[in-house]
TrEMBL record:
Name under which the protein is recorded: Uncharacterized protein
Organism ancestry: Eukaryota, Sar, Stramenopiles, Ochrophyta, Bolidophyceae
SUPFAM superfamilies noted in UniProt: Phospholipase D/nuclease (SSF56024)
Amino acid sequence: NPSRCVAQVLRSGSKWSLGSKCERSIYNTMIRLIDNSEKMIYIENQYFVCGFGTTDDDYDEDRDSESP
């Protein structure tokens, strides 16, 4: 059915806002959606950050604590 649309809404959280050590649900969901896409995918995010070429070892958990 060409008029069918599936959408998922996510909210971010971090050490400063939720007290969690490292919150990656949005990142993990975006990766899953990209991996499972069949034709195309549209992602809109005003805070889009690229971690291309980095590994989990490069992730700085204290970076989130600098946000307001």
